[in-house]
Amino acid sequence: MTAKIVSMETIYEGWSKFSRAMIQTSGKPFKREIEDHGRAVVVLPYNPETRTVILVRLLRAPVLVATGEDSLLEAPAGLIDDEDPADAARREVMEEAGIRVTDLEHVATVWTMPGISTERMDYYLARFSQGDRTGKGGGVAGENEEITVEEHALNELWSAARRGAVSDLKTLTLMYALKDRPPELFD
Fold first, then answer.
1. What is the mean pLDDT of residues 16-38?
2. What's the CA gap between 181 and 179, in Å, rounded?
3. Is the entire prediction scored with pTM above 0.70?
4. What is the predicted pLDDT for the residue at 98?
5. 52-64 per-position pLDDT tens digit
6. Neighbours of 48 (CB within 10 A)
7. Which one of 95, 124, 130, 174 has the minimum C-beta count within 10 Å?
8. CA 58, 61, 66, 68 torsion: positive or negative?
9. Which residue, among 24, 177, 45, 29, has the nearest Cα to 110 in the 3D structure?
């Protein structure tokens, strides 16, 4: 199959940008709407000594609209601001969770919703120790994040993941990656 973009038009630009593309394949041309807000990162900070992970709880407007739930528990994540993905990952963990991480392990770079969005996200695992908890976290003032930082035992979170109680896909994926890489943390 050979596909080409016949035309692109911006239909909305705000926090996200929405475009309409006219695509031509071997058949008749068709339209698709595309959401674009840039590249992103997600990090699962874990402490191998205490066998805990740090997660954040924050408002996600789409979750509120779809379910009425006013917060979602997830691994720290955010957009890349014209920087290296690893640097963005370190920045996001400090801003959201108050943890200085240096030891990042890249898990994957994935398309998060390829049917509608251009977003590609870099997934990381990050070891930390108690001494790395140097900030307060909670997000950046003025960004309406109101983040709550939570510490969870690895075994308890793994149990929640196994029974389908971790509803954020980023966090679930990183929990499976962590379980696979140093599985002795879960013994």
1. 94
2. 6
3. yes
4. 96
5. 999 999 999 999 9
6. 13
7. 130
8. positive
9. 177
